[in-house]
Amino acid sequence: MTKVIGLTGGIGSGKTTVTQILKDSGLPIIDTDILARQVVEPKSIALKQIRQKLGKDNINTDGTLNRALLRQRIFNDSEAKLVLESILHPLIQAETVKAIEKHKKNNPKLIVVAIPLLAESFEKNGQLPSYIDEVWTIVCSLEQQLERASKRDNSNKELIQKIIEQQASPEARLKIADHVIVNNGSVEDLKKSVKMLLQ
Prior knowledge:
The chain is α/β, with parallel strands linked by helices. The protein has two domains: about 1-30 and about 110-199, Rossmann fold; about 35-105, no CATH class. The protein has helices at about 15-25, 30-40, 45-55, 65-75, 80-105, 120-125, 140-155, 155-165, 170-175, 185-199, and strands spanning about 5-10, 30, 110-115, 135-140, 180. Strands 2-3-1-4-5 form a five-stranded parallel β-sheet, sandwiched between helices.
């Protein structure tokens, strides 16, 4: 029977690296960040709703989403953030379930669903998505988070610190974890930790 893993962690924790390690091990990966980008493609239902509920200035002249403006808006306006989540989350959930069902046809031992905001979703709804059987949480020190995320995004550490403060606390992430992947060392150390979980 296939087990569905929810893989989560804060900004700069190493989700992309862990996802790649799991992919290299032959496991099917569903990345909800990629699904989130797909549901807001030009002419999508989500884009129409964003235009109606949050304003047409969120859509570029070529019909694509103005990500920079929208990111800034939801960062400063909690009401707009809730509206955006109410538009996107049901669509992303539906696409996730579709992808899981598709992968299940091949009978893999595990399917990994990368969900950056899983702890936040749990805090808000009081439950995990019904399709998740087990949660793997990636944690690292605050220093590592700041260092990695600022390098990767070419952002200053103050902005990364603000994003971290808006995300779920490490305690909230650990609360939902069935397994914890500590990522304070090298990529080789991380590979060993992930391989141990796969045994």
